[in-house]
Amino acid sequence: VENIEPGINGLLFNPQDIDDFTAKLKYLVDNPDLRQKMGQKGRELVLSQYTWEHTISNLINIWQKRIDRLKNQ
C-alpha cells in the first residue's frame, strides 16, 4: 500500500468491500489508456525499487541491526 499512488501506479480498494473492488476493476476496464499508464508507472516502480542491489542492501541493513541488538544485550 505504501508504494501505491492512486491513479498514478494503481488503485486502492477496501479489502472488506466487494463493491469497491468491483467498481475499481470496472474503472480499469473502462479506461484502457489510464490502465496502460498506471501499468507502466507500476513497472517503473518495481524496476527502480526491487533490484537485486536494493534487496541485498535491505537484507544487509536488517542483519546489521540484528547483530547490533545482539551485541547490546
Number of strands: 0
The largest sheet, given as strand count, sense and whether it forms a barrel, is:
none
Strand content: under 5%
**Residue runs with pLDDT of under 50 for 5 or more positions:** none
Average pLDDT: 93
| Sequence of secondary-structure elements | HHH
Helix content: 55-70%
Number of helices: 3
What Rg do the Cα atoms give? 18 Å
Task: Give the overall shape, derived from the CA principal axes.
Answer: elongated
Give the termini distance in whole angstroms: 34 Å
Structural class category? mainly alpha
Describe this structure as you would to a colleague.
There is one protein chain. With about 70 residues, the chain is mainly alpha-helical. It has three helices and no strands. The protein has helices at about 20-30, 30-50, 50-70. The chain starts with 17 loop residues before the first helix and ends with a helix.
Draw up the topology in text.
Elements: H1 18-30, H2 32-49, H3 52-71
Summarize the structure.
With 73 residues, this protein is mainly α. It is built from three helices and no strands. The model has no long low-confidence stretch (mean pLDDT 93).
Keywords:
single chain; 73 residues; mainly alpha
